[in-house]
Write a structure and sequence with these properties.
By secondary structure, the protein is mainly β. The chain folds into two domains: 35 residues; 261 residues, Pectate Lyase C-like (3 Solenoid). The protein is built from one helix and 26 strands. The strands form three sheets. A twelve-stranded mixed β-sheet has the order 3-6-9-5-11-13-15-17-19-21-26-23, with no helix packed on it. A twelve-stranded mixed β-sheet has the order 7-8-4-10-12-14-16-18-20-25-22-24, with no helix packed on it. β7 and β8 form a beta hairpin. The longest helix is centred in the N-terminal third of the chain and has 20 residues. The radius of gyration is 29 Å and the shape is elongated.
Length: 301
Amino acid sequence: MLETMNNRIRIAPRTRHALLLTAAAGFSFGICMAAPAAETHKEAKLEIAAGGTLNIVNGAGSVTLHSGSGHQILVSYTVHSDKVEVDQNTSDNKQRLELRTHALPNQKPTADEAKADYDITVPAGVSVNVSTASAPITVDSLSGDIGLSSETGQISVTNIAKSHLRVRSMTGAVGLNNVTASIIDIQSAGGAVQLSNVTGPRIAVGTTSGDIHYSGDCSGGGDYVLTTHSGAIDMTLPPTASVDLTARSTSGTVENAFPLREKTHNTFVPQQGRSFAGTSNSGSSSVELQSFSGKIRVKKL
């Protein structure tokens, strides 16, 4: 009930309680009716010239690339809000194609709203460059010139042969599996690097504080250089590995549990617990393991 008292309106207790319940119900109803973020999925077949270059720039979400036949790039992507979009730009001669995720003008998407997920099929012979902020990058069975860069996103590469692979990471983990006969250059600040069955004429890995793990035979008669400042290096070799191996740490420790023959001539004087050198089988591949303060361990598979 409503009563008038001294020119003021007094609301009876029962009426006040009912109004509060009604207001609360209306508030809850408003929350339930909030519109979900718009999600858009698109697919396209894009022409690219033989030997052309595909550039992908994506902040968050994911980027997955596969190999394909023909002369078209098959693009499938999903954006998770109407605040972002994907631009497609192709040069006049179709030598260069760029896919770029960006926020629309005057929009400030949240981290989830800014995500875009790419799934792309790339024909043989096309060079690929991918740059992300936090989006993980997954590459399978590509060939050619490949550049991958991410600040915090994980980078995974599998089943690549006879390629040139460049990887840059800040803190995201990097994993390579079954990458053979390739030139590889990996640089990471703090992310761990895992290499399994990775071979080629030149394998170079450098980290600041990230650990490096290598498992394989270092075959191919190549140069394998693994360096870190404060991370650890773990290398596991099978008995068939044919390596000329040196390991050195400035202030860290080194351990060897792999059978090596002592070298007659060394470029440095081995120090117990700080460095060692030796060969196995014919020593066809050169392996250098270096750290400043990180631990180095070589083990037998």
